[in-house]
Amino acid sequence: MAEPGKRVTTHGPRCFSKIKMFLLALAVAYVAKSLSGAYMNSMLTQIERQFDIPTSVVGLINGSFEIGNLLLIIFTSYFGMKLHRPLMIGVGCVVMGLGCFLMSLPHFLMGRYEYEKSISPASNLSSNSFLCSGNKTQTLTPPHDPKECMKEIKSSMWIYIMVGNVIRGAGETPIMPLGISYIEDFAKSENSPLYIGILNIGTVIGPLIGLMLASFSANTYVDVGSVNTDDLTITPTDTRWVGAWWVGFLICAGVNVLTSIPFLFFPKTLPKEGQEDNVDVTKSDREEKHGGKAKEEKRGITKDFLPFMKSLFCNSIYMLFILLSVLHLNAIVIIITFMPKYLEQQYGKSIAEIVFLIGLYTLPPIFLGYVIGGLIMKKFKTSMKKAAYIAFCLTLTEFLLFFFYFLITCDNFPVVGLTTSYDGIQQPLYVENNVLADCNTRCNCLTKTWDPVCGENGLAYMSACLAGCEKSVGTGINMVFQNCSCIGSSGNASAVLGLCEKGHDCTIMLKYFFTLALIGSLIHSVAAIPGYMVFLRSIKSEEKSLGIGLHAFCTRVFAAIPAPIYFGALIDRTCLHWGTLKCGEPGACRMYDTNNFRNIYIGVPAVLRGLSLLPAVFILKLMRKRQLPGETDSSETELAETKLTEKKSECVDVHRSPEVENDRELKTKL
């Protein structure tokens, strides 16, 4: 009767002693971390406008996450194997929550957002100085106040966001390498691809929630509750609009902290999957094994590091995978980070709408692709060589489809003085002298102020003054400007606030873009699981955790950190008009040359992805000649089994041949 009682007492904690329970908790952690990452990427444009910083600085803020990850990745990947892996993952989730909370602080520490405008939102505006009036004396440049400028420069609150992102990156460090190595150690080898596919599904669900949250935040004014939104002269489609970016970071902080709780209850080791029912044997074996090796692990915690590193660097397939990943991830980081900004400028939609469409069209096919990829590996028991060919062919197909993005184009916004002349003729570059014309020279307008209006002639002007408008009616976003001499020759033409909307053709092009993105996302995600399993099988089991960490280290140093910075600087070179701070210094970019933006945004990733195919070809050639560590090709196994069967049958025939001959002789005689 003692044994059943013993089993009852061990049954309670065993709910946290099964690999599937750990898989569930880790999948939720993947959802939480990817939720934070997707939300951060979607809010980059809002942060850029809130703090009036160039895109290159925004790239630095985005790359700071990888810097935090980089600080601990090698240490965590190697030494984490010797420590309590579930506990370290739980601590990482808490740290991520703290980072997200710090990122929301600038909203509470700084004043209200004041966007660049020349319009007073309330009262009758016919007498205000922003309108065209020939009898006033007004300079063509805003007054420079050095004290005001120093005040704005010193209030660099975006540093809080960067530091918070560094902390978030440090907290995420243990989740992937320790989680995957924990699953690889205690799951059946045939179930491992499916489990990793389930984890990747978590990285789809998280961004889906994050993008929906980002869409809501981007559509809500940043100072909601403290300002009267009816007095605003901008809408979410305006490039000066800033959404409530801080709300989502508070939500992400709470979610990450709650995610950490289950990991506090998991043991350091688990019984191998399929042996959970053998509780007493498994427990005693585990105690013997780990008790006998405890001192050896402590002595060898640094002894094996250099040999493992040497072994990894001598592994040609593994090193080619790192080169492939660096090139490929450069392209992926560029595409994901700057997609909202690109689509906003290219197709003239609001960030809130763009973010919603990104989640709708790209994440469900990625989810489906991960499931298909994992099921293919499990159902057909695909060998690593076949998996490598599958991943390569699918990646090549998706790469060729990528070039169709060059054909899905849309023209620049028609802004007089930037992209078109006053006669409506498109011009390639911004020429400051062309901002003024005969119709507005007498108005003494500010030439750098960005407060656009759309004329009834279909052309936009950088301000109502430059449109030659002499009076206005209405308040807030409903203002109408009248007697605009530059819009119509009769002098009684009108204009409304904001840029002119792009035509119906742009809306159709946007649908083509997302249709192609849907197909590409599906193909790319199906290839991800076979490709990643080949990568895992290229590493020896004892080197797996360190190998994953080193791979993550290299991809962060050479891809995830520099890519948004250098590409942000390239985007800044396509800016047609910079916003102006109160002190006269340039702020965030208000409008880009969409043609140059498109060539850079599509061209640079295309080159990087093309280069990443070269090491993939070498990997396929090397895999023909050698066997991956710990992996036996199924075809070779079948061949060996066939030969063994033939050999056995020959032996049977040899032994039985005399008896057969005797039987034949007897039958003949009869």
Automatic annotation (TrEMBL):
Subcellular localization(s) per the UniProt record: Cell membrane
Domain Major facilitator superfamily (MFS) profile: 22-627
UniProt domain Kazal-like: residue ranges: 433-488
Chain spans, region Disordered: 274-295, 650-670
Membrane spanning stretches: 21-40, 60-80, 87-109, 157-182, 194-216, 244-266, 317-339, 351-376, 388-408, 512-536, 548-571, 600-620
Annotated keywords: Cell membrane, Disulfide bond, Glycoprotein, Ion transport, Membrane, Transmembrane, Transmembrane helix, Transport
GO biological process, any: monoatomic ion transport
Key word Thylakoid present: no
Protein known as: Solute carrier organic anion transporter family member
Organism taxonomic ancestry: Eukaryota, Metazoa, Chordata, Craniata, Vertebrata
